[in-house]
Amino acid sequence: FGLFFRVWSARYNRFHDQLIVTSSSDTRVILFNIASLSSEPYGSLNVSDDSKEEMEETVNEDRLVRVFDEHEESVYTAQWASNDPWLLASLSYDGRLILNRVPKNEKFQILLRCPT
Q1: Residues 5, 71: contact at Cβ < 8 Å?
Q2: What digits encode the pLDDT tens for the residues 3-16?
Q3: Is the full-model pTM beyond 0.90?
Q4: Residue 21's closest CA among 35, 11, 7?
Q5: What is the pLDDT of residues 62-111, one digit of tens each?
Q6: Which residues of 8-39 are buried (b: 16+ CB within 10 A; e: fewer)?
Q7: Max alpha carbon distance in the chain (Å)?
Q8: Please, what is the angle between helix 104-112 and helix 49-59, to 10°?
Q9: Structural contact between residues 32 and 20, judged by C-beta atoms closer than 8 angstroms
């Protein structure tokens, strides 16, 4: 999945536990969707039959969602917001705090899933 340096933190999203964010010494914050470890129903979708097959192919895979590379120093922690499931914060060695959001396309794929 592209982790080559020391990982300082790995946190799951308490609202959508398939979302994992890591911070590392290479200045990157990486967002993963690990559907195979999720407590949500695997592969359930609430979409039309025409687009269901296409959506299942992308939703059911464990994948790297996004690399956030705004930091210039080692990123010591990344945390999910307690009141917003789509917001995360990261803090680097130089004291820089950066807020990022889960990309909209990923958010909508997760929201389209329906519980069984």
Answers
A1: no
A2: 568 999 999 999 99
A3: no
A4: 11
A5: 999 999 999 999 999 999 999 999 999 999 999 999 999 999 999 999 99
A6: bbeebbeebebbbbbbbebbbbbbbbbbeebe
A7: 50
A8: 110
A9: yes
